[in-house]
Amino acid sequence: MPTRALQEATLLVLAALARGSRPGYGIIADVQEISGGRVRLRAGTLYTALDRLRADGLVGIDREEIVASRPCRYYRLIPAPRRQPAPGPDVRVGDADRDAAAAALAEHFAQGRLTLAEFTARLEAALTATVQSEIARTTRDLPQP
Questions:
Q1: 36 backbone dihedrals φ, ψ, rounded to 5°
Q2: Cα(26)–Cα(98) distance, rounded to whole angstroms?
Q3: pLDDT for res 91
Q4: How many domains does the chain have?
Q5: Where would I find the H helices in 1-145?
Q6: Phi and psi based region of residue 36 (left: phi greater than 0; alpha: psi -120 to 50; beta: remaining)
């Protein structure tokens, strides 16, 4: 994942998709609910965020359907592969490790194990981590699947 500041809209889209597969209009409704009505995504903002998340490998297309004679695309989080941390000295991490941690945190947020503030802080820490122990700190108190 390229290093860039995480936008609030992108964070909320991840949180909405952590609830499960959603069409665009469902994501917009979930973001409004998650934010307590404070954030109302427009279609352009949503699809820009989804395009970036797809390019980063965090989101994929789940399925496409025809609803009222119009195509409807459902999006989902892409599960991160699980790896055991290497024993010994702290190992440097790459983009795939950061992406896996972000997807895991989004799932824990969707399950209600993290508040929005905790999720935001941990996600920022995971996306800026340089070694395995920094990523491990973001999820060490959460259950493993």
A1: 70, 30
A2: 27
A3: 87
A4: 2
A5: 8-17, 24-34, 43-55, 95-110, 116-127, 132-139
A6: left
b/e burial code for range 99-128 (CB count within 10 A of at least 16 → b)? bbbbbbbbbbbbeeebeeeebbebbeebbe
Q: Which domain holds residue 120?
A: 80-145
Residue-level pLDDT, tens digit, the chain, 145 residues: 445 556 888 889 999 999 899 999 999 999 999 989 998 999 999 999 999 898 888 899 989 988 888 889 999 998 876 655 555 567 899 998 998 999 899 989 988 999 999 999 999 999 999 998 899 999 888 887 6
* 40 and 68 housed in the same domain: yes
Among 27, 45, 78, give the residue marking a domain's end.
78
Which CATH number covers residue 6? 1.10.10.10
> Count of residues for the chain?
145
Neighbours of 63 (CB within 10 A): 11
